[in-house]
Each structure stands twice: as C-alpha cells, then as structure tokens.
Design a protein that fits this description.
- The chain has about 375 residues and is mainly α.
- It has two domains: about 40 residues, no CATH class; about 290 residues, MetI-like (MetI-like fold), CATH 1.10.3720.10.
- The protein has 14 helices and no strands.
- Helix 4 runs antiparallel to helix 5 and helix 13 packs antiparallel against helix 14.
- It is globular and about 105 Å long.
- The N and C termini lie far apart (about 65 Å).
C-alpha cells in the first residue's frame, strides 16, 4: 500500500500592513547622499560650496549686524576703523530712498500710488479671486492714469510736481512697471509681424528688432534724452522721464519679441490647422488658440526679461533721473554722514531691495509655470 503524501497550503486572507520604505532610499539623508555626496568629487564640491556660502553669510552678518552702528546723530560714530554698517544713515535718508526729492508735504500722494499699485496687483496675481477682467482693467488702465494725476498734480486742487523731483524707489517702480506693461504687447506684435507672410511687415519688424537688440540700453537712453528733442518741432519739449520710459519699453520689446517668437515656433502646426478648420480668423486663432499656448511655454524667458528690465532701471541715472541707486549715490556726498562704511551700507540696502523684488518675480513665475503646465505632466 503506497503512502499518500498530502500537503496543506495557507492563503492569507488579510493583507499585511504597508511598511515604510528603508531610510537609506528616502528622506533628507538619502537625498543628500545621492545628490551631494555621491562620489569623492561630489563630496569635495559640496564641502567647498558649503564653506563658500558660510564664509559669505558670515561676512554679511558680521558687517550688517555684529559690527554695525545702530544709533547715531551723524557719521562720526561710523568713522572709526573696524566699524560695520552705518544704519542711522539709512534711517536718516530712508524717505529720500523711497520718494526721492518729491516735496515732503505731498508725499502722501506717492504713498497712495504705492497702495493703489499693491491693491490692483495682488488680486490680479491670485488666480482664485474673481472678476479678473475688471481687475486687469483697473491695473493696466486705471492704475497708470490715477498714478499719473496723483504724482504730477495740477488737477483736483493738487499741487503740480515736476518729474525732475521724482526719484528713489518710486521712479524705479515707475520705469519698470511702465516698461513691462508697454513692452509685452509691443513685443507680441513684433513677434507676429516677424512671422507675417507680408514681406513689408516682416522686413519692418525684423529691422526694428535687430536694431534695438544691437544697441546697448545705455545708448538708447542717451539717444532718448539728447537726440529725441532734435526731431521734435521747434518749441515742443518731451519730458525727460517720458523719453526714458519710451526708450526702455522699445528696447525691452525687441528682446521679448524674440522670446515670444520662439514660443510661436514651438506650437505644432496642427494647432493652426485645427483653428482654421473651425473657421477662426487670424486674430481669433492667435488670441484664442496659439498665443495662450506660446506665452505659457515661454514664461521663464519673459520673466527673465522683466527681471533684467527691473535691474537695468539703474541706468536712468546717466540721464539725470535719480532712481533708488541714484538717490543712494547722491546721499553719499552729504558731509554729515561721510564715513568709510556709508557707501557700503547704501549699496547693501540697494542690493537687498533689488533682490527682494527680483526673487519675488522669479518665484511667482515658477509657481505660475507649474500651475499652467497641466498638459505636460507625466
């Protein structure tokens, strides 16, 4: 009689609980080991980078905080050797850094302009807030008109203030905001014109773009300030600030045109054919189908031009328009605050202000890029 071997099988009816992944492949230590210390060379580069960052941070903290002078009535306390930043000088000149030489009794108008700018820009930058068309109309049309009448005066009983008295951060924001608002639509038109099938329009746009891209901004400002009046009728003068605004807007639009043209060339031909199959006209096709996709693809390039424009506003100093950096340089001639560290402190303030604005634009553009990249997620 043969033995019959029987076996029993066990089938689990309840799944085991999921275990956390090993710490060797997840977490900050795993990321650091894979990205910063993956090899001997990577470890050396990481160590050198950390040393360089630590040294720079220490130098800034030592100058701006540890050895700084925090209270003084003049620059005498900032003149001894080894002293750090002279912050009382910044406190004494802070209003000039913001408003320039704008008359002090009328500075409430400039403050109101800052508030209007923030009140129209912040809701426009938050996608979830409603009434975007009304908000855009308020920012692109209402805010510039209201700001001009408030700052220039001469209406509604406001005291007239010449643009030669405007300065500081106020002028920096005016030049950059006007340049951004005016250069973007002009750059879109130049990009479309360069891709036009009409030879005359295409040639005009090509010549315009290449000319302004081939001339330094400092030369454009000199031309706008000194040569533009030569082409005006006798007795007619154009405000110096307006000349700078026109030059900056045209100069930036040439660079934006090439950035936007790159986005237009990246759009598949099927998008154009699909729009034409729906019976859309040229401007409908561009405004509803093509241009939104092209602008979404070139957000980094557009914001890069905006950041460059914001930093290049410091060049208006060469045509006697005192922006933030110009007011800082002008304040260094005050004998009351002359010291070896006054200039370093002023330039540190300028660097902080410009970094805050540029970093804010950069981070916001990255957030918008991630939010709009729904069709490219994998």
């Amino acid at each position: 009689m043969s033995d019959v071997t029987t076996s029993t099988a066990f089938v689990r009816s309840v799944l085991t609980e999921a275990k956390a992944p090993p710490k060797s492949i997840v977490g900050p230590w795993a990321w650091a080991r894979g990205h910063l210390f993956g090899s001997v060379f990577d470890a050396l580069l990481t160590a050198f980078g950390l040393f360089l960052i630590g040294w720079m941070v220490w130098q800034v903290l030592d100058f701006a905080v540890l050895r700084a002078v925090w209270s003084a009535e003049n620059g005498e306390a900032c003149r001894p050797e080894g002293v750090g930043a002279c912050w009382p000088y910044v406190g004494a000149y802070w209003k000039q850094f913001v408003y320039g030489r704008y008359p002090e009794p009328e500075r409430w108008r400039a403050t109101l302009v800052f508030l209007i700018f923030a009140a129209t820009l912040i809701p426009l930058a938050i996608p979830k807030l409603p009434h975007k068309r009304l908000n855009a109309l308020a920012f692109f049309v209402g805010m510039p008109i209201a700001s001009f009448f408030l700052l220039a005066g001469g209406v509604f009983g406001l005291e007239p203030v010449e643009t030669t008295l405007w300065g500081g951060l106020l002028v920096t924001l005016i030049v950059s905001v006007v340049g951004i608002v005016c250069s973007l639509p002009l750059g879109i038109l130049l990009a479309l014109g360069r891709r036009s099938k009409l030879p005359i329009i295409r040639m005009i746009c090509i010549v315009t773009i290449e000319f302004w891209r081939g001339v330094p901004l400092i030369t454009v400002l000199f031309m706008a300030s000194n040569m533009l009046p030569l082409f005006m009728p006798a007795g007619m003068e154009v405000d110096k600030l307006l000349r700078a605004l026109i030059g900056v807007a045209i100069f930036t639009s040439a660079y934006l045109a090439e950035t936007i043209r790159g986005g237009l060339q990246a759009i598949p031909k099927g998008q154009y054919e699909g729009a034409m199959a729906l019976g859309l006209g040229y401007w409908q096709m561009m405004g509803l189908i093509v241009m939104p996709q092209a602008l979404k693809m070139v957000i980094p390039g557009i914001v890069n031009s905006f950041i460059s424009l914001f930093k290049d506003t410091t060049l208006v100093l060469i045509v006697s328009i005192f922006d933030l950096l110009g007011m800082i340089q002008a304040s260094l001639a005050d004998p009351l605050w002359i010291s070896p560290v006054t200039g370093k402190t002023g330039y540190l303030v300028a660097a902080i202000v410009f970094w805050v604005f540029c970093f804010g634009m950069s981070r916001y553009s990255q957030w918008m890029e991630r939010r709009l990249a729904t069709g490219h997620k994998r």
